[in-house]
Amino acid sequence: WILFESDFFPVILLTAPMKHYLFVFALCLCSVTNTKVVVHDTTIPYTPSMAFGANIPNYANARFMREHGSTIIKQTGVQSIRWPGGSYANKIIWDNDFTNVPYFKQFSHDNAGWTFTWKDTAAFAKQNSLEVFWQMDAAVGFIYGADVAARIAANFVGNMTHLGYKVNYIE
Prior knowledge:
Elements: E1 2-5, E2 13-18, E3 21-26, E4 35-39, E5 42-46, E6 53-55, H1 62-76, E7 80-83, H2 118-127, E8 131-134, H3 138-144, H4 146-162, E9 169-170
Helix pairs in contact: 3-4
């Protein structure tokens, strides 16, 4: 279970089991002045001066983002980004390893080399001092089960940590 607490609403994320899956219902009506996130027994304070973010979809051209992304981010004042942003999060596998999830191989072109990959996003976020809300493929859980989805997410966190990048948030 995950519990979000803020000055405005005491609980904004609840979990409820339905059939064989765990569905997460989020209500994002909270004050951002003093918010904390409780994941099991771990408390992470989160007190941004402004809660304003942007989807950075993986289908954004990587070259364009390298050349213009920092300027765009600075001009907008964005402090957080989501990757892969939007519906692509339910299509791609971050490392294109389809060994345990062969259904998703049909979407491998959606995570091709020209796209803004997870490595591009991590480097971009670090360079621009941005928080990333990493989206993992929820559809994996529906098709292959929560244990497979959890392993993919854990492998992602392990790889990011090994490369020296922080992973604070996973959707």
